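Page 42, continued from yesterday. The earlier attempt failed because a stray header line got pasted into the input along with the sequence. Redoing it now with the clean sequence only.
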Amino acid sequence: MSEDIKNMVREKYAAIANQPKDQNQSSCCGATGCCDSTGVYNIMADDYTQLEGYNPDADLGLGCGLPTEFAKIKNGDIVIDLGSGAGNDAFVARKLTGESGKVIGIDFTEPMIQRARENAEKLGLNNVEFRQGDIEDMPVTANKADVIVSNCVLNLVPNKHKVFSEVYRVLKPGGHFSISDIVLEGELPSKWKEVAELYAGCVSGAIQKSEYLGIIEEAGFTNITLQKDKTIHIPDEILADYLSAEEIAEYKKGTVRISSITVYAEKPAKDDRNCCEPGSGCC
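This time it went through. Structure tokens are written below.
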């Protein structure tokens, strides 16, 4: 089942890599791509245009926060961007690391990697690298990164425990992450969990906020901090693609809250776990 979900997400985001931004923004994280251009809703994404390093060619409108804004990236840092897409967060991070730093973007969708590399070449950036790989098994050595960022990606990954274990392994002792993601409070209608489009569009793959924060704590991180928490309101026009009018009314009366959170956490400076390389089974 896990591989089925990964293949579905890979196919959807391969298609999205070649769509214009306005089409991506017309649904949850750009997954459905079916709405006409007059009905565009920027549901999840925050506005990057005021951030230094922003490049419109790399902005596919797929995010749900501004993790780089909160990530405390310093000049000379090594930064890893999980689910780097066309390079949007990586290029903003590169502005903060400067020429003495390095940014590594990881994405498991080949067309996204290709688009990101083309964007980096256009910008003439020789210290931004994009690697194709699975963030559950990162193609990065242990204790490599000062900072890890990610924007609306982990909700698409079936094994979130494994991802945060990998984040812990790859961060240097004393390093930290800032990750934006979609989480839930209360139970979604069961019908949503069965809809592939919504899974690839962020919502059905989201888990409870308390569980999400618990996974981070279990992975060994400290100083876990919610840097941002905003409610996501999905327009009726999009809900109607999946739910009947009665189901929409019932959903709105309920106690379900879909939110975008940005979480900060640190790997302890003294790391006793001896995390090793991908595929070894430790950590």
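Notes: Strands lie at 78-82, 102-107, 128-132, 145-151, 171-185, 222-231, 257-266.
Reminder to self: strip header lines before submitting.
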